[in-house]
């Protein structure tokens, strides 16, 4: 019963986080349009005057809201991680033996079914984004292979979400290990999962991808 309650609560948290991510993506999209101010670009021109090509109050409001959403996203992700740990612990907890074989067999069969069901239910919890692309260089491998600003990385090769891991370092190592090889990538874009293939490779700019990531 406790496991079911935790699972239901985790689903609610996931839905709430999806709504946060959708709003974040909308703001990122607006701020990173061609000619836009970007996520952290200057709001004054080269002479120090307020830019006249953008609505500065709106930009400031968007950036402020984005900062709030990032904090909310971080907090809700911590709660999801805690719920996942509880669900994992429940799956790994030893089952007490029964007094007779028939009851034991029944319990074991029930346990196997529950474990299989739990494993299926756990998949969406594990496949969650761990980083977002916040900068892409023109003509870079990332740009040419179809990734976009604001894409949230769910899986990059063999790298996917895992609590307590330095995932950006793992992502960089995965790119280096697969130079000139196609790497399967799964991203969330505007809340929808998209499968892509990216080939880390040398180009005129820095690195093998030509983009920067930020941890979610």
From TrEMBL:
Does Chaperone appear among the keywords?
yes
- Name one cellular component (GO) term: nucleus
Q: Ranges for the PDZ domain?
A: 131-198
Where in the numbering of this chain does the Nas2 N-terminal domain appear?
12-89
Gene3D superfamilies with a match to the protein in the record? 2.30.42.10, 6.10.140.1710
> What are the record keywords, sorted?
Chaperone
The residues forming a coiled coil are none
InterPro entries, alphabetized:
Nas2_N, PDZ, PDZ_sf, PSMD9
Any Gene Ontology biological process: proteasome regulatory particle assembly
In Swiss-Prot or TrEMBL terms, this protein is called 26S proteasome non-ATPase regulatory subunit 9
**What is the species listed in this Swiss-Prot or TrEMBL entry?**
Linum tenue
């Amino acid at each position: 019963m406790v496991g079911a309650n935790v699972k239901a609560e985790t689903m609610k948290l996931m839905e709430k986080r999806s709504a946060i991510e959708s709003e974040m993506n909308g703001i990122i999209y607006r701020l990173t349009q061609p000619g836009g101010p970007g996520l952290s670009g200057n709001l004054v021109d080269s002479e120090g005057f307020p830019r006249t090509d953008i609505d500065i109050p709106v930009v400031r409001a968007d950036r402020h809201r984005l900062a709030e959403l990032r904090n909310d996203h971080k907090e809700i992700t911590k709660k999801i991680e805690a719920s996942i740990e509880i669900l994992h612990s429940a799956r790994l907890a030893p089952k007490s033996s029964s007094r007779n074989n028939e009851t034991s067999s029944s319990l074991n069969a029930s346990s196997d079914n529950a474990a299989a069901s739990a494993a299926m239910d756990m998949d969406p919890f594990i496949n969650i984004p761990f980083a977002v692309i916040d900068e892409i260089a023109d003509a870079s491998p990332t740009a040419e292979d179809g990734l976009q600003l604001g894409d949230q990385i769910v899986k990059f090769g063999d790298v996917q979400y895992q609590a307590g891991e330095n995932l950006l370092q793992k992502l960089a190592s995965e790119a280096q290990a697969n130079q000139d090889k196609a790497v399967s990538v799964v991203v969330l874009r505007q809340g929808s999962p998209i499968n892509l293939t990216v080939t880390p490779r040398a180009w005129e700019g820095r690195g093998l991808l030509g983009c920067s990531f930020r941890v979610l």
